[in-house]
Amino acid sequence: MFQRFRILLLVTLLAGVTSAGMGLHPSSARAYHTYEERLLDSTAYSLQRRRVRLGLMQLSYGILDQLQVTTYTMPWLLGMIFQTVAPNLELKSTFYDRKRLALSVSAGFLTGTILQTDDSKVRYFLMPIALAASVRINSDVSVHLGTRFTAVTGGADSQPDGNQVEGALAIDFMQLWGMAEWRISRVVAFTFTLHWVPYVSDAIVNGSLGGANPTADLRLAVATDDLKNAFAVVPGFVFSWERANIRLGVGYSSFFVDGFYLVIPGDVLSNVSPEFDVFVRF
Predict the structure, then answer these.
(1) How far apart are CA 99 and CA 101, in angstroms?
(2) Under 8 Å between Cβ of 233 and 251
(3) Pick from 67, 107, 229, 276: most CB atoms within 10 A?
(4) What separation, in Å, do the N-terminal and C-terminal C-alpha atoms of the chain show?
């Protein structure tokens, strides 16, 4: 009950901030809330040629009209904390944008290595592929739908007590999302986002143990029940001025992690699903 009360309190505070933002002079704003400038996250839209987005969570550049390249900052930061970089890249193309409908496809990768104190290593590689559609119902209201399939592979090796231990992991999962967007003014937009994981494969683990004794091989299928049917309901707001933009939201249940393309079960973060970004576009 306390957790639900806290979520409602945060949403109320966001609504109060929105009311303050609506009082700003509308001519001072552009970015998201004009016909040419659209939301990029969870939509089918992408940056135009030579446009740049620099933000807390991601950096993007428009290579061509309706083709952008993005790298997420959080994997790089966490990679430095764990003594190794985490390269990641995503290409997104809005291949169709006519009248009220836009369609996009995106693909990318995320890879890295986590070094442990006992000199063991954990390697990971993620490859997401996504399709999205955006429908402009009218000048103020849009609906965005999408699906993403992510293939995850990884491996680990260590040498405890002189024995060589190696292992490999593979898991696939699919995510669906839908977002309603209501442009309250040229400064403020309200968003309501739904995330759902309809499919997660079991985690297949292959391992081997070698050393003084003969090598032993094993194969395990690990259940992923905590991720199956994971979902999140996230109301939020986007504030947009001439250059600066702020995205705020807080929702319920699981946390869908941007940049890592993964899902943190709801009970890990007390069923709070945050949404936050600060960025500039020019």
Answers:
(1) 6
(2) yes
(3) 67
(4) 44
